[in-house]
Write a structure and sequence with these properties.
Length: 147
């Protein structure tokens, strides 16, 4: 029982995912600090020095609970985009490269797709002989569309 668990934990994929998650958490902290301490002050300054941020006060002036803070939302969008770019360029691209050198294809683009004439689902592989959703027989040849 313990030997099977050890083999499961020591698989290369699990170690790769664990390292990727650790790197992602560390980068998340850095990017959060960047958006909180660089982007947010710039957005606040662009609106004016006396404002709580980029947004509108919906209630009593000075009440943070009724302040519609678009600056924080914009900061969160920037955070998300930076984080996804970091994950893609520092985790996904190197992983694809290493796996390609090992002869394995990961994160490949989907092949040509076709539409089922019975249920109109659009995600059937072009070579499918039965629909994944309604189990109807598919014509062997037909117009294929690419995703």
């Amino acid at each position: 029982m313990f030997k099977g668990f050890k083999n499961f934990v020591m698989r290369g994929d699990i170690v790769t995912v664990a390292v990727g998650l650790i790197i992602a958490l560390a980068m998340s902290t850095l990017i959060k600090a960047f958006t909180d301490f660089v982007v947010n002050p710039v957005i606040t300054r662009l609106q004016g020095g006396h404002s709580m941020g980029l947004g509108w006060q919906l209630g009593r002036p000075g009440n943070r609970a009724t302040y519609l803070d678009l600056g924080s939302f914009l900061s969160a969008v920037i955070y998300f985009l930076i984080f996804m770019a970091v994950v893609y360029f520092f985790v996904v691209v190197p992983y694809k490269h290493v796996q390609a050198r090992r002869g394995q294809v990961v994160f490949e683009e989907p092949g040509p797709l076709k539409t089922c004439p019975a249920c109109l689902c659009e995600d059937l592989p072009a070579a499918a002989s039965k629909c994944l959703h309604c189990a109807s027989d598919q014509p062997p040849a037909g117009p294929a569309r690419t995703a």
